[in-house]
């Protein structure tokens, strides 16, 4: 049984040809782990390709709903890249593989998606218990704020 190519996996994701923005990362703004993920990406995204939106913002809520993500109980982050919405492990690997020095992460797409997503979901389900939760949405500094869509 094959694992499917990256292109085959992408075709199973949500086509969003009408969404006006590309390279947008949707994240849980009260999740400490998720906010650290955003900081990790910003620190390495020297081309400033990616922009960010917390699911708690108006823009983020609309984006989440268009992907079928419950904004009140998100179980995944997402990234819009090339007109396709990637979620769970596909989202994380898509972002990582476009950061300088992280292209090697493309090889992780060879790991079967059900296995990758099982690990992702385990962390996502326990993220508040393991990493904690902000009382209010994470507020980025001025440089980060320029890349946040609300």
TrEMBL record:
Top-level taxonomy: Bacteria, Pseudomonadati, Pseudomonadota, Alphaproteobacteria, Hyphomicrobiales
Pfam family, one: DCC1-like
The species this protein was found in: Bradyrhizobium elkanii
Protein's recorded name: DCC family thiol-disulfide oxidoreductase YuxK
